[in-house]
Amino acid sequence: MVKLFLYNTLRRKKEEFRPIKKARAGLYTCGPTVYNFAHLGNLRSYVFADLLTRILRYNLGLTNVKWVMNITDVDDKTIRNAKMKYPDLEPRASLKKFTAEFEKYFWQDLAALNISKPDYVTHAADEKYINKMKNLIKNIFTSGYAYVKDGSVYFDVIKYGQKYKYGQLAEVDVSKLKPGVRVDADEYGKDNAQDFVLWKGRKENEPSWDFELNGQKLPGRPGWHIECSAMAEAELGTPFDIHTGGVDLKFPHHENEIHQSVVGYKVKKPVNYWLHNEHLLVDGQRMGKRFNNFYTLKDLAARGINPLAYRFLCLQTGYGKVMNFTWEALKAADEGLKHLYNQVKELRITNHELRIKDINVNFKKKFLEAVNDDLNMPRALAAAQELFKSDLASQEKLATVLDFDKVLGLNLASPESGCDKEAPAEIKELVNQRERARQEKNWPESDRLRAEIKKSGWNVEDTSEGQRVSKK
Ligand code: AMP
Ligand code: ZN
From the alpha carbon of 323, which atom of ligand 1 is closest? Predict the structure, then answer.
């Protein structure tokens, strides 16, 4: 047994991962705000969450990990942009239509990067979750930590700080907090820490839901922070094991999530491990829509760069370190990936069958020790290179490196031929899942996936080159 260590922001140190339920893991990732295309910085945080999930599955088995991701489809930014794009539609219909478009692009981007689809995807604007949010707000109010002001509901941070620790993920100077000073915006800085909004009173021409609190009618919509607390609880319960997001989410978003769940769900520690990926930078500044310094996967396509080269680039830097984006570095990663594909291709020359028993245990252990050391992917990639250089038989090397690819996710089994170029993202995802099932020798699951692929109008064939997909 190789132990898994993760850097926990809550305690600011690497800790051994001890799940709540033996050999199982539940994790929640703050999903995208679907008001624009995801940029490479955003995508870095989903490559990280995907790696973490794959590593958990590599340790615990495919079905013992439950990964939940939300889609933020109601917040300040989505509402603002939906109003601009579809001004004539009824506000909720406009928001739905607008966010659905960007959500579709988001899943396409994830598929291009071989990021597995989370087991559960929750939509903040879904009535089912809005009801959970309303209930959580009611609980917070009943516990005495929320108040109503001008049709909105706010969280009382001073009162919270008198009983609980304020500033668990980020140091906050509590002496600067002023009673009764409120912030309505979803995003604000540490210097601006104040009572934050749980439920925003209705504004003209904006989407809203009915809400009644303490006999008062308060039509409006949820604040951003309450969304994640309620959706994570709905799918994972509280407490749960792991919560991920980019470092910018530590404060206020994640800090507020903790406060809300502590008093609303009455749990001391709603999440055991908080993991944060560092930023992708451009010329020393964080890549971000508001800085107008961002690139998307479309920019890669325009330059003929394989999106997986970006995944490979991300693997070369620890998730907890800032990474500076340059086209030179990406092109070098593209070349590096081609080289890796060639290395795998050379092993295939003998055209032998893939067998689990050919996986080399010593190299597997080396790889596992690397990935289990807080996702040390540079070390894991070095183990793969060491494997290529070793004097093992080519079928052992091949079986071992394809086993590593369950975590790396670089399509090493079928760089060009595995997925028909025309197959849509959902089909490719099923094929990838089937590849993993086959490597696990989970034949019933492999057959089930084949049937599912077939039902969607595609055939899958097992060849010595891996799976080949074609239209029925
Ligand atoms: P958003 O769609 O703005 O809600 O952000 C989605 C995810 O991307 C969050 O986890 C952010 O923390 C993360 N993120 C935003 N900008 C960057 C960046 N430049 N580098 C890495 N992660 C980022
Ligand atoms: Zn969130």
Answer: 20
